[in-house]
Design goal:
Two copies of one chain form a homodimer.
Chain A lengths: L8 H7 L4 H9 L6 H14 L5 H7 L5 E6 L5 H16 L3 E6 L4 H13 L4 E4 L8 H10 L2 E4 L9 E5 L1 H15 L4 E5 L5 H16 L6 E4 L6 H15 L6 E4 L2 H13 L13 E6 L12 E4 L2 H17 L8 E5 L2 E3 L5
Parallel strand pairs in A: 1-2, 1-3, 3-4, 4-5, 5-11, 6-7, 6-8, 8-9, 9-10
Antiparallel strand pairs in A: 10-12
Helix pairs in contact in A: 1-2, 5-12, 6-7, 8-9, 10-11
Chain A binds a DNA duplex (30 and 30 nucleotides) through helix 2 and helix 4.
DNA sequence: ACCTAAAATTGACGCGCGTAAAAATTTTGT
DNA sequence: ACAAAATTTTTACGCGCGTCAATTTTAGGT
């Protein structure tokens, strides 16, 4: 309700009848002052609504309360969703998340890291672009800033990696598909940006071997992050060419699968596991929209919350440890199969 | 290649054989120094890779080079896409975008504005939550910080509003649907967060009157940002109850439509404009995934680039004008109809 | 080579706050 | 009530840079 405008902490301290260093102490840790003075400050705070100048504060602290979050492509709902979870967790812990998207481009990723370095964050959660990441840039960044990698691993970089168990994704879908019908053909991009895609192909080959089935891998061309369109076009030509040797398609990820479903619809192929169906389509990730495709997509789901939660936990643990760990750890969460109508 | 670590501008100036004020001038405007000294600085820059401490810089400037971007829900690809465009434009102009999502919650929107105020941005691009926005908070914020509203208007707030012409969206879809088949029933949420939804309903009623058709509005319950699920559930019960009096459904937005398509598929209703189809479904927004629904969605498309571009232009114009305009302007862009298979 | 305008340097102050040391005050335990 | 412990106050410096006034150096024209 106070109408005065406070310019700095000095003024605010005077108005609350305290000295500036005490007030400063309060802002760094409200519990570090006597309860009675804490109350006085908080009352004055309501009355005058003062906030310390964030730039002056950060200039004088070696580590800020900023947490950088970098994702490869924010317009992908998968990353939007995981970023949302991470942001919330940071806020709950009293930190200020700074969200940045690399927009699928190496330059932008490098720029983001540059900007972040200037922001002197307490730590960074980085989901790198993957194959097209500039390894040197990332390595140098990780040397300067405590960094936890998530979603997509780059060997040896960052203090820890948290992600999903790609092999387990594929094991679960392949197992399910094999025991419920024809063995799956694997559908993927030939040059995926994300290294998880390679792990999934390899896991597919191994899983098929275990089942004693002969693998069929269909790799389609395509660059960038327009996975749905790549999947749609690729499916059209693969179907036309008869590349799928069985009636079951296992897509590397849900966004490709969305494109495949679109192509199937356009070709009037019925997708599902019913007797009147032409094809089964399954996939991985449990993209937020997978529930709403037609038919709804059978997929292996990331444990979003676990990945987000553990990433943040790990980072804060590291920050408390002075920004480094004795050794790099890799944590993989198991996905869970979500059976819907498509397979 | 230089291996030294530069601590501050003083050191860097010494290493490049210049004085600190000159170097400071360079960083504020590279063209303000003699070309020869500019070259010297830039050579040293490559060698030693120095960046002025961003906190010290911002502390001493009244207005920073930060541009705040606030969207109501970043996990919605529509906002992710428009945010991506805006970010890029800000970077191109030499500003630093700071992207924030309100996660669909009033508290978060208020927090975001609070944080932004502390960041002393040169300007803010704000897409408010709408109905559930805290008008008082937004008004106070706009008084302190040069703000341009986009996507969703709040009467009188901010220095300008840039959005799409909701009436035109609906006019185009209704016209198209009426002249190509049965007149549409309107499908919407009863209590939409976004004020655009109300404008669309009103435009529907007017358009139907113009066509001499009797309007049918189906409003479904539902809170939050899970529009697809709300649409799916709502469509199931509306279809079961026979609420749709014609064979044509016009959804308030694409995400609801995605839910409707899902429900139709589950009920084995064929959607499209062919003779063997049961229903036509159309919508508004041209959501990034609308191309890939089954069938592909007929919709009216936002002019994303125009909205993003004009918003940024307007903001920078305003910043150059000292942060205020003589009077508030509202700019609406016309959408364009995208006819696909669903209607 | 000389003059002038333009540019760079010197020296200094201020921004708002973190933080440290010493002194003064308040609280706590007995 | 009194000494010890805990907290607050006082005083002062430093962070890295913007910015200003006064001065010196440089560049461009003749």
């Amino acid at each position: 309700m106070g109408e005065q405008k406070i310019r700095n902490m000095e003024e605010f301290a005077a108005l609350s009848g305290l000295s500036r260093p005490t007030v400063s102490k309060y802002f760094n840790d409200p519990d570090s002052v006597r309860p009675s003075t804490r109350k006085r400050i908080e009352q004055a705070l309501e009355q005058y609504d003062f906030r310390p100048n964030i730039y002056a504060v950060n200039q004088n602290r070696r580590l800020t309360k900023n947490i950088g979050i970098v994702v490869p492509y924010l317009a992908d709902p998968f990353f939007a969703e995981i970023a949302r979870n991470i942001e919330q967790l940071c806020i709950d812990t009293g930190y200020r998340p700074i969200l940045m998207s690399s927009h699928g481009q190496t330059d932008q990723e490098n720029d983001n890291l540059d900007t972040l370095r200037a922001l002197k964050p307490a730590g960074v959660l980085l989901a790198p672009l993957g194959r097209i990441s500039d390894k040197g840039v990332i390595e140098r960044f990780c040397r300067d800033v405590p960094t936890v990698l998530f979603d997509s691993n780059i060997e040896g970089m960052g203090e820890a990696f948290i992600g999903s168990d790609n092999a387990s994704f594929v094991d679960q879908t392949v197992d399910y598909l094999c025991r419920s019908g024809e063995p799956p053909c694997f559908f993927e991009m030939r040059t995926p940006a994300n290294p998880n895609a390679n792990k999934r192909r390899i896991a597919y080959l191994e899983a098929m071997a275990r089942h004693g089935e002969s693998p069929v891998v269909v790799s389609v061309e395509g660059d960038g992050w327009g996975f749905e369109e790549i999947g749609r076009r690729g499916a059209h030509s693969a179907i036309a060419a008869g590349d799928f040797k069985t009636n079951t398609i296992l897509c590397s990820n849900d966004r490709l699968a969305i494109g495949v479903l679109s192509a199937c619809y356009e070709r009037e192929l019925r997708v599902g596991r019913g007797p009147d169906c032409d094809l089964r389509v399954a996939s991985h990730d449990d993209h937020p929209f997978s529930r709403f495709t037609c038919p709804a997509l059978t997929t292996a789901a990331h444990d979003y919350k676990a990945v987000a939660g553990r990433s943040v936990e790990t980072l804060f643990e590291m920050i408390e440890h002075g920004g480094r760990f004795r050794e790099r750890t890799e944590t993989l969460f198991k996905p869970y199969l979500v059976v819907r109508a498509s397979a």
